[in-house]
Amino acid sequence: MSVPRGPGSGDGKPSLAVTGVSPRKGKDRDGVGKGTDASYHRRNTTPDTVLDPPRASAGLEDAPEDPIVEAAEESEEEDEGYQGSEHSSTSRFATSEIAAVLVPDPIIPGLVRVDVPGLRVEGPCHRSCCGGPREWLAKQVPTPHVLPPLFPGADPTVVFGVATEEANRTTGLEPWTGKLCVRFGGVQNNGVKAAMKTAGFRIASSTKGEKLTFDFNVAWNGCLKDEDYKRADRYQRINHFPATWELGRKDRLGRNLIKARRRGPEFFDIQPKSFLLPADKDDWRLECTYNPDGMYILKPPASSRGRGIRMYKGPKDIKPEKNVLIQRYIRDPHLINGYKYDIRVYVALTSLDPLRVYVYKEGLVRLATEMYTEDGEDLKRRCMHLTNYTINSKREGFTMGESATEDNVGFKWSLSALRRHFEEQGLDYGNVWSQIKAIVTKTMMAVEGPMNTKFKMLVQHRRTCFEVFGFDIMLDSKLRAWLIEVNTGPSLSAPSKMDLHIKHKMVANLFNLVGIVPYDRAHFAEAEKRRRMERITGVSSSGRGTTKKTVASRRDFKSLGSLNFHDVPVDKLPEVIVESEAELARAGEFDRCFPSSDPGENDTYLENFEFPRFENALLCKWERHKHALRNPKLYQDDSRPNTASSASRTAQSRGSTPVAGATRRLSSTATWKRVSTGSRISSAAPMTIVSAEPFRADQVPPRSASMVDKLTSSLRRLSGVSGKKPAVSVAPGLDLTGVGVGVGSRDESGVKSSRPVFR
Predict the structure, then answer these.
(1) Which of 232, 663, 666, 735 could form a disulfide with 644 if both were Cys (CB 3.0 to 4.6 A apart)?
(2) What is the pLDDT of residue 399?
C-alpha cells in the first residue's frame, strides 16, 4: 500500500521519512497523536466557534471560572523544552534585543511609533516554541509597564510582548503599581493567557455561584448578554462586538454580501455565487436551468471545522427546502505541487464607527492531503476537496513541521512560507496580499450596517469592543482571491510549535493594537460622576464652560468639506483622529486595511458604503492630508503623477469608476496660498510631545472635492436647501473660533442648525 506524500519538499514529493516530520496516527478528538503529550495539546485545542444569536451562550454573569494552572501542579505534563524560569527564556538575547523601541515619526509632530522586537514576524522568539518556557504557567506575575501617550491627547497603554521587566526599564517605561485584571469565560486558550501573564495581568477573582464582578480591564469571553455590554465603562475592553453573527454565520454573511452586491455588483464580487435556501429557491431554479453541469458545495449555516459540508455535481440532487447555503465550487484552484490549499488570515476589528480594520501579516496555509485531480470529478474524496485542518489531520499520513522554523513542511505551512514559494515560482505575492486586504475591507463594509445598529443600541463607548476574526481565502488558477468564510471565534490552539509561534505573537500584537488603558477604578467613578454633572450644568468645577472647541465637531459634511488640517494645532484635532493615530502607532505586525494610506483607494471605498458616516469621511480626509505631507512632490508639480492615477488603477481593478475627487487635477497655485512652515520632527529628534505645533508642509495641497462634496450636495437636495454657495467669502484655512461642541461624546450631533446635519 502506497503512503501519501506531502507537498513540502523541493521536488514536491517528500516521504514520511523527511527529517523533522512525524506522521500522526490514532488521533483523539482533539486531533492529537496518542504517542505525544496528549494532555498538553488537549488543553491548547479549541475549535472555531460560531456565535448563534438564537442560542447565545451564557453572558458574563454566567461565564465559568478559568483559573491559570500553576507550573507546580502541571509539572508531570510539561514537555522537555519547558525550563520553568524567566532567565531561560531570555538568556539567548541581550536586553536591547527584546526591549520595546519608541521611534518618533519624521513627518507628523508628536507622533511616536512603538516596535516590540519579540513580536515581529521575523523577530527573536523567547517562547516555548523556540526553547523558552511556557509563559502561561509562570508562577510570578511581573509588574506591568506602560507606554507613554504615542500621540498628543492619547491615553497611555500597557505594553505586551516584552519578556522581562529589565527590558521595560531599559526603554524607560513607567511601571504600573495598580491592579490589572482579565476576565476569562467561554472559549479559552493559552495564547491569551501567555500574553496577559507576561504583561502583568491577573485573573479577575470571583466565587463560584455568586454574581461575577465587573472589576476587570479586559474580558475574553464567548457571546455576551446585552446587559453585559451596557455595563462596560470607557476603559474596559470586551473581545466581541454585538451582532457579530452577521459576519460569522454563513447564512448571514451570504445574505449581507448578496445585499451589498445589489448596490455594487462588481465591487462586492468577492465570494463565489451563493444561494440561501429556501429563500433563494427561485434564483436556484434559474441556476439549475442555465448551469446543469455545475459543481456546488453545500454548507450548514452555523457549523464549523468542516462538519456537514457536502459536494454535488449538478443541482438535481439538492432539495431547495433545506435551510442551507449553496456556493459554486471553485473548480480550478491554485495548487501547491498538486495539492489544493486555503489561507487563514487573522483580522482585527477595533472600531465600527469609524470603521478601523487590520489584517495580520502572518497566517496559516492549510493543504489538502490528497492530490487534486483535473476538475475534481471524484466528489467523495473529502481530503482532496476540503482543506480543513480537523478533517485532514485525521487522515493517515498527515505530516507537519516539528519546529517553528519548519514552516513549509508537510500539509500545514505559514503565510511567510507561501510568500517564499511564490517568489521562487516567479508569482506576484504582493498582488495577492492587496486582494486579501481588499476582501477584508469589503466584507466589513457589507456587514457594518446591521452591526453598527446593534452596537449603538448596547454600547456606550466607541472603543469598548474589539474582535479578531479568521478569514478563509482561496486562490483560483489565475491567482484571484476569493472569500470562503469567516470565523468569529478562530482557533488559537497550538497543536504544533509553528502554530504557537504564529498565534502567540499575533495575540500579543492584538492587545498592543487594542490599547489597554490602566486606570484607578475608584477615581474613575468619581470623575465620571463629576463629568455627568458638568455636562448637565454646562459649568466645570473651575467655573468655566466645559465645551472643548475642536475642528469638525459639528459632524456635518459642509464643515468637513472646508476643513484644512494644515492650520490645525495638535490640541484641536478631533478625538477620533487622536485615537486612530495612536492605534496605528501600536499596530506592530498588523497591516491596516481601512482607512487606507492611499487617498484614491479611500475615495473608492467611501462611495460604496451602505450608509455614509461622518467619522469615516473625516479619517479619510486626514489620510489624504498625511499623504500630502509624506509625498509633497505629488501636490507641487503640475506634471507629476498624482493620486488620480492610483485611484484609476484601483477602480479599474475593481470594475468601478473613481469619484470626482480622486481624478480631479490637483492645482496648488489657483486656490491656495503658500503657508510658512514650522520645524518638523526629524528621525534623529528625541521623543517629545508637541502640543501646539500646526500640521504644515512646504506646499499646502488644494482641497479636492471628493465624496464629502457629493454627500453634502445630496443632503442639500434632500432637505430642500439651495445648492448655491453662500455669498459670504471664506478665507483659505479654517476659522477655529466659535466651533461647536467637543467630540468627547460620539453620540452628540452638534449645534442645532437649519442646515442638514449628519447624525
Answers:
(1) 663
(2) 84
Distance (Å, rounded) from C-alpha 317 to C-alpha 324? 14
Residue with cell 474524496: 381
Grid coordinates representing 712?
Answer: 453634502
CB distance 557 to 721 below 8 Å = no
End-to-end CA, the chain: 68
Distance CA 153, CA 175 (A): 20
Distance CA 435, CA 444 (A): 14
CA atoms of 106 and 683, how far apart (whole Å): 5
Strands 181-184 and 202-203: parallel
> What is the secondary structure of 89-138 as a DSSP string?
HHTTS-HHHHS-EEEE-SSSTT-EEEE-GGGSTTS---SGGGT---GGG-
Region of residue 158 (left: phi > 0; alpha: psi -120 to 50; beta: else): beta
What is the per-residue burial (b if ≥16 Cβ within 10 Å, else e) of 598-617? Answer: bbbbbbbbbbbbbebbbbbb
The pLDDT tens digits of the residues spanning 188-211 come to 678 899 999 999 999 886 544 445
Q: Annotate 551-571 with b (16+ C-beta within 10 A) or e (fewer).
A: bbbbbbbbbbbebbbbbbbbb
Grid cell locating 188: 479559552
Q: Cβ–Cβ contacts within 10 Å for residue 22, how many? A: 15
For every residue of 169-183, DSSP letters joined together read HHHTPEE--S--EEE
How many CB atoms are closer than 10 A to CB 79? Answer: 11
Q: Are 427 and 479 in contact (CB under 8 A)?
A: yes
Q: Which helix (H) or strand (E) holds 345?
A: strand 339-351
Q: What is the dihedral of CA 486, 447, 250, 290, to 10 degrees?
A: -110
Q: Are 602 and 437 in contact (CB under 8 A)?
A: no
Q: Looking only at Cα atoms, what is the longest distance across the chain?
A: 88
Strand 412-414 relative to strand 237-238, pairing? unpaired
